[in-house]
Design the sequence.
């Protein structure tokens, strides 16, 4: 009798294991790991689906983007609230690295490391990645932040209660708690300008054309040309955030 | 059915009714239209005023400067890169005058020699030593036609 029972449970065990494995297989096939696959959720073809391209090789660190962003969006002028900012990465001869962003690059940069110690140095403009699987949207307990049908991550000021979960959740440090409104605040890709047919402020003022934005649903859009012409990478691809900010010339040092 | 359940059922029904009524009044209009958020908030954000007017607005009045700029090295630049946000100026040009920067420090933000700045992308000079007889860059260079030297 004891033998019988063991046989029976073995059969059950195998059956259950097979079901579990099958479910996992089907599940993984329907929702694959898509670090770079921006169109995985098959966006509405009649709607725009915005993405951003930044060419690190073309950035000259003038900081006009960071400055324009603050004027356009009424961001507090204190030197720790930014929707868009520029970082300077300096890799020294001994392999150590320093990242600087004095006032987000708004007042320009000055070289703090002596020139003979520098192996390589470059600028990285940063802003919201407008992820389509945003960690910040996932943690919001009240539905105050969301991905709009155009693929822009927005904050509903009236609904936000200022718990700042999203500020902690964003792996790119793109959010802050507005000191006066006490609500989360972030880059909107100048949603108000896009809707008026204008370019977002940082794109408008970039003198070298280091940053472009466009519609991923439109195959003739310049963003498609940018993605085809360059070997682009997103920040922290292992986090699978579905970032739609593609960098050309991104080195592994950049976090 | 046990008698306890019979007593509790009306309370459960009342609770569900109160919940549904409260939900009706508490959930804002347009919530859930596209997803778990208030769809009207997008219209509210879209209604915010623009501070940068855009180059097309500038060209409407400043057509001579724009024509000059069109054949210059600076042709790709928007007017507001140097002159700053211009929506207020476009509304009332007399009252809101935009700056005409041209100091060594200002031009040096792009053209000052700097290690992190690629020479392939932009022309650079040492702003501290380049032609120090003149104070500002615009004393010699016209920003709308950079190689048209003054005097």
Sequence:
């Amino acid at each position: 009798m004891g033998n019988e029972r063991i046989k029976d449970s073995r059969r059950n065990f195998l059956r259950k294991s097979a079901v579990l494995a099958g479910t996992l297989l089907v599940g993984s096939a329907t929702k694959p790991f898509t670090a770079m696959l921006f169109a995985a959720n098959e966006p509405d073809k009649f709607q725009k689906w915005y993405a951003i391209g930044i060419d690190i090789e073309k950035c000259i660190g003038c900081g006009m983007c960071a400055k324009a962003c603050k004027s356009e969006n009424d961001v507090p002028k204190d030197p720790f609230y930014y929707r868009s900012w520029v970082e300077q990465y300096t890799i020294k001869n001994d392999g150590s690295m320093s990242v600087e962003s004095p006032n987000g690059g708004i007042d320009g940069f000055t070289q703090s490391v002596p020139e003979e110690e520098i192996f390589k140095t470059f600028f990285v403009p940063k802003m919201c990645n407008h992820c389509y699987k945003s960690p910040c949207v996932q943690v919001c307990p009240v539905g105050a932040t969301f991905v709009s049908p155009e693929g822009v991550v927005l904050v509903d000021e009236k609904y936000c209660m200022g718990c700042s979960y999203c500020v902690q959740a964003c792996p790119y440090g793109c959010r802050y708690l507005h000191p006066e409104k006490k609500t989360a605040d972030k880059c909107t890709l100048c949603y108000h300008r896009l809707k008026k047919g204008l370019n977002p402020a940082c794109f408008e003022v970039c003198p070298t054309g280091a940053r472009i934005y466009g519609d991923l649903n439109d195959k003739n859009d310049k963003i498609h040309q940018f993605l085809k012409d360059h070997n682009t990478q997103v920040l922290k691809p292992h986090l699978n955030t579905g970032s739609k900010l593609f960098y050309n010339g991104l080195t592994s040092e950049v976090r | 059915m046990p008698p306890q359940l019979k007593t509790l059922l009306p309370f459960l029904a009342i609770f569900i009714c109160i919940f549904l009524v409260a939900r009706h009044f508490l959930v804002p209009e347009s919530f859930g239209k596209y997803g778990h958020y208030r769809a009207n908030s997008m219209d509210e954000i879209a209604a915010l005023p623009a501070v940068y007017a855009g180059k097309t607005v500038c060209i409407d009045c400043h057509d001579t400067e724009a024509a000059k700029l069109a054949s210059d090295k600076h042709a790709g630049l928007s007017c507001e890169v140097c002159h700053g946000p211009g929506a207020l100026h476009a509304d009332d040009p007399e009252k809101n005058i935009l700056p005409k920067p041209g100091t060594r420090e200002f031009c040096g933000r792009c053209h000052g020699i700097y290690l992190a700045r690629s020479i392939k992308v932009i022309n650079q000079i040492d702003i501290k030593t380049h032609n120090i007889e003149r104070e500002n860059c615009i004393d010699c260079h016209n920003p709308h036609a950079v190689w048209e030297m003054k005097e």
Residues 34 and 237 of chain A are 9 Å apart (CA to CA). Chain A touches chain B through 48 residues (CB under 8 Å). The domain at 50-133+171-248 of chain A is CATH 3.30.70.20 (Alpha-Beta Plaits). The first helix of chain A runs from residue 2 to 30.
